[in-house]
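Good morning N.,

You mentioned wanting to compare the apo and holo forms, so I went ahead and generated the holo version with nicotinamide-adenine-dinucleotide. This is what I fed in:
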Amino acid sequence: MLAPIEQLTIEELIRKQRRFFRTQATKSLAFRLSMLTFLKESIKHHEAEILQALEQDLNKSELDAFTTEIGFVYDEITRTTRELKRWMRPKRVRGASIHLGTQSEVMYEPYGTVLVIAPWNYPFQLAMAPLIGAIAAGNTAVVKPSELTPNVAQMITKVLERAFTDRYVVSVEGDKDVATELLAQKWDHIFFTGSTPVGKIVMEAAAKHLTPVTLELGGKSPAIVHEDANIEIAAKRIAWGKWMNAGQTCVAPDYVLVHESKREAFLEAIKREAFTMFGNGVGTKRFTRIVNEIHFNRLTGYLTEGDVFFGGQTDRDQLKIAPTVLTDIEEDANVMKDEIFGPILPVLTYRQLDEVIEFVSSRPHPLALYLFTETKAVEQTVMKHLTFGGGCVNDVLMHLTNPNLPFGGVGESGMGSYHGRYSFETFSHAKSILRNTTKFDLPIRYPNFKAAEKLI
Ligand code: NAD
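and this is what came out, ligand included:
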């Protein structure tokens, strides 16, 4: 059900935001900067409660919750505040010879009233990071947090209520029915983070109003460990990226393709690293839990689809599943069809790089791809042949921590991108303006049919 916001209906809320947007108040640099400061202050004020909510909803450790959720948001606000004046400046562009006497520029203007829909896996960060872009670009916004992390959803509402009035930025809590009601409205932009099937629903709803969308979706992100890779480093970094947040990370390595000559060495190394970092997970107090029983059941179903090389322990009461590696996966296994989004890592082998190219390119474009190799030619082959949202060579996840890189998917893993300046551009319309001089007027552009007719 809809959370009461002064008992406004969704239609009234949007009307109120549109009226406020039309006052032009959201557009000045000073206003945007103060709003970002208010947001940061409000998060700081509620920081302890947000950490607690992340523990209640997902058993996130304070360290994980701070670095991947709150700290990330602080950094994004700090950077945006520092750079915004420069980003907002109209960008001069060159013209061709027919543009003699003109100036051309791109002006960034806010779309208007935008909707941000967030998922549950990084429930705070994935609601706030797009919102920072929406504010920086001068929009008003409605944020819909995930219902699967209700304590964090409440904190998002509290943070926004303390910082803003509902005519500017507001949280609307609720489940898919509320999301459906929100999506039935006309928005000026929709920013959705979540699964690919729901992404399609969002895009269909947006199409009715010709609303532009950014879709940050999921998929199966491979990690390729080539025969010349530094196996110890590959195992350590893959273990870290896979089992952080119990594998419930959109860009977590979903499965590993390791060169068959390095299979044993890699398996032994990742087993050691997983245990050093996360213990057996189930008995590790601070290991993140699975979000709910539906996902727990889905994930435990994968455990019988291959040989458990290590892990496999589960605890239904705590909703915990140990870091697990599966080998010798059954043909047609669901674990190699669905996005896993949990702590289970299938490890497959290959002999030739061509097999990797064929395997990955015959599937939907992944959100991320990770390649471990020491050879430039191998890197170039993979980069040239495979399409994916973004990724790393000799690392995992780190590409999304660099705000100078656009973060987003391609094909079934999404469209559009954000972070840093890209968030600002995502929530802005790039308006093209050509300014001409009146000091002279080139006659050549005008027709002169009369003179031409006289010549005939
Ligand atoms: P989800 O698609 O089930 O839900 C996301 C949001 O959509 C929630 O707020 C939910 O209330 C709403 N929703 C659910 N069903 C809906 C419907 N029928 N109509 C309208 N709205 C609906 O996704 P999730 O389970 O919350 O998140 C996990 C997925 O998100 C994974 O696929 C993961 O890869 C992806 N993800 C992607 C990114 C990214 O940045 N690309 C980040 C995090 C998660």
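DSSP finds 14 helices and 18 strands in the chain.

Happy to go through it together on a call whenever suits you.

Best,
F.
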